Amino acid sequence: MNEHGTWRRVSPDARRFLRGRTPALARLGGWSLLESAHTFLTGYGVARALDDGFLAGRTGVGLGWLVVAGLGALLGAFALRGVFAALADLVEPLRDGLVRRAVRHALDRAVADPSRAADAGAVSRLTQQTEMARDSFAGIVLTARSFVFTAVGALAGMAALAPVLLLVVLPPLLLGLGLFLATLRPMAGVQRDSLDTDEALSRGVGAVGEGLRDIVACGGGASAASGVETLIGAQERLTRRLARWAAVRTVALGAAGRLPVIALLVAAPWLLDRGVTAGTLVGALTYLVQALLPALHALMTALGSAGTRLLVVLERFCEPEAEAEPEPEPEPKPEAEAEAAPAPAPDPRPSRPPAPAAPVPAPAAPSVPPSAAELRGVTFAYGPRAAPVLEDLDLVVRPGEHLAVVGPSGIGKSTLTALLAGLLSPDRGTVLVAGAAARGERDASEPDPRRTLLPQQAYVFTGTVRENLTHLCPGARPPDDARVREAVTALGVGGLVERLGGLDGAVAPQRLSQGECQQLALAAAHLSPAPLLLLDEATCHLDPRTEARAEEALAARPGTLVVVAHRISSAARADRVLVLDGTRAVCGTHEELPARSPLYRDLVGLWNATGED
Questions:
Q1: pLDDT band per the 50, 70, 90 thresholds, residue 553
Q2: pTM of the model
């Protein structure tokens, strides 16, 4: 870390801020000067109480000087009240200014390039780092002015008692302080690397979260995890380094806090030979133990932690925004240097990931199978001791049929589609698709050309509109633009496609609503060559009119459509309706089922009562 460069970036803003707070600084200095009178009176009163009072046989005089020292304590408490009031006039404007700057930087960045993802590092600056700067600044101002004015009072008191005391106390005090200051620069470097890693980790985790479905679809979990784990490991190593420097700082603190006392005790005979009285020695010791050394301890602690942290955090707000430019590839570093450098976060979202259910061209079947899908005595339960979700279910879905599946929440509708999609295996019975086992020996990572499943959470990935619409059409010859536009028109998503920039426009999933994602996924399903489409609440975020258009378009394409319905209109459009009630299944048309199924009759009444179309 270039500490001088850091200070050059921070100091102009710091000077402007302090110049604008001159009245608050003046009030703070005035109250602190009044507080230093307490320090002066404490040691001076003890010395005079001994020399002029108790040791001289005048108890009343000694008690009087102790009363003076006590009044000094009351004066210090009164001054401290004013100190905190003036401190608030400095600290709160700093925090407010940093919050405004963080928001302005984030907004400027978003306006300059709306296509880029949100700045995850801005969240850290707006929340954690602004509070860190506020607390650190308050601690530094409070302890720094305390040390300065305490030192003024203590050194003035020693000079008033016996100037020779300064020759004994100052050298070891300055030596310990110098040793401590030597640790500040390396600690600041580690603090800055730690914040860099923290922001990189925030961006990396955010990117992984946004592209999680694409990562799973591409089988890139290990690669994405390794990038985040690298950042976590770097943060752990930096924390250890910071702890080691903190240990060195503690040693320096002990030297600065103990050496002056030891020097005074060792020099006591020499001082007594030169006329320094016992009361003066006790007064000097009082200055050291009760005033100067505690203030020095607080100052060194604040500078060692809050000071370096404040400098590094302020740099995050003062440095120009350079994130819009791509960073050059880093030069190889020695192991010692690479330990502290945060690793770049991986981009977990590929431009065009393979979809988890993308079908592959299948050879033409010699004849049409007797059924598009069939369940024979199927029973399924989520666990050996769980109640069956489906029990002894028999169902035949004819080729080209439009089947709606209805039932209360949790009754097994999604389980049925998962069985047909081959995602689950029945505990008992057989599930067939196009006359073959729904879940055969096929590699689970390969799509099945016989069916496409659209879940409630629509699958949309980072890429172009065309790629999102044709990813279910594998092979060397994807649908031409005319075929794609035909599907877009059939599904009524032309307006959305145009808003995204046409077929070559970029799709950012995080910028689309759930309904828009479902519209794109439904258009992709319309282009899919799979003969069996399974919609598991895949239209739940669409309005009734858009849902009706989508289902009618999908039912009109060649093939079979199975829809988990959540509106009466969706069930009414189907050729047949399968009602699941947990104990038995009833299948029939929308018109005949109210007489055959009490549950369906209740569902129709509920849909009508709630205004579902």
A1: very high
A2: 0.48
Identify the band that residue 382 occupies on the pLDDT scale cut at 50, 70 and 90: confident
What the block records as the tokens of 395 is 């169902």
**What is the mean predicted confidence (pLDDT) over 486-507?**
92
159 Ramachandran zone, left/alpha/beta (phi>0; psi -120 to 50): alpha
Exposure on the CB side of residue 141, measured as CA atoms within 13 A = 22
**Residue from 268, 334, 255 nearest 297 by CA:** 255
Whole-angstrom distance, CA of residue 229 vs CA of residue 351: 23
CA within 13 Å, CB half, 426: 23
What are the b/e assignments for 117-154, b being 16+ CB within 10 Å? bebbbbbbbbeebbebbbebbbbbbbbbbbbbbbbbbb
pLDDT digits (tens, 9 = 90+) for 232-246: 888 888 888 888 887
Using CA atoms, how far apart are residues 448 and 469, in angstroms rounded to an integer?
Answer: 18
What average pLDDT score do residues 283-293 get? 86
Contact 525, 554 (CB under 8 A): yes
Is the Cβ–Cβ distance between 560 and 373 less than 8 Å?
A: yes
Contact between residue 94 and residue 135 where contact means Cβ atoms under 8 Å apart = no
Which residues does 374 contact at the CB level (< 8 Å), separation at least 6?
A: 395, 396, 397, 430, 431, 432
CA angle 3, 303, 7 (to 5 degrees): 25
Tally helices (H) and strands (E) across the chain. Answer: 23, 12
Determine which helix (DSSP H) or strand (DSSP E) holds 557, and give its type and residue range: none
3-class state of residue 392 by DSSP: strand
Calpha distance 525→31 (Å, rounded): 74
Degrees, nearest 5: CA angle 424-427-428? 120
- The band of 144, judged by pLDDT with boundaries at 50, 70 and 90, is confident
Spell out the residues 6+ positions from residue 351 whose beta carbon is closer than 8 angstroms to its own. 462, 463, 467
Residues 291 and 285: their CA atoms lie apart, in Å, by 10
Could you identify the residue written with the tokens 């590094």?
A: 312
In 3D space, the residue among 303, 290, 288, 287 whose CA is nearest the CA of residue 253 turns out to be 303
